[in-house]
Write a structure and sequence with these properties.
By secondary structure, the protein is α+β, with helices and mostly antiparallel strands. It has 2 helices and 4 strands; from the N terminus they run E-E-E-E-H-H.
Length: about 120
């Protein structure tokens, strides 16, 4: 008697090991990934059946780019901010630049102390 154990299983492949900034949570924990489907025989992947489409997925908030919708578009608009001192990309809500450490904006209504 002979038994054959097989099936098709999805496997997530990370396409780029360098993280990018997640447009929703703002942390550099988003990776380009792809889901491929493999034919398994005796729990060993043998042949890739279907190659999936690449997508961006955040490790922190676990959201994919197509699930973000309006949040993604609003965040992309905000991501064009730059530090006026060092010129590096900066989230517009930051009060201090994480790269050079300088204050990038003063809170509204704050006055400077006079001597």
């Amino acid at each position: 008697m002979f038994f054959l154990i097989g099936g098709i299983t999805p496997r997530i492949k990370v396409l780029d090991e360098k993280p990018v900034i997640c447009p929703v949570c703002g942390l550099a924990q988003a990776y380009h990934k792809r889901v491929d489907y493999w034919l398994n025989l005796f729990f060993i992947p043998v042949v890739r059946i279907r190659k999936g489409e690449p997508f961006l997925m955040c490790e922190r908030c676990e959201r994919q780019i197509h699930e973000m919708g309006e949040e993604y578009l609003a965040a992309v608009d905000r991501m064009n901010a730059r530090c006026r001192y060092c010129g590096r990309a900066l989230h517009p809500e930051f009060r201090y630049c994480p790269h050079c450490g300088k204050a990038v904006s003063t809170p509204s209504g704050a006055s400077t102390p006079e001597s």
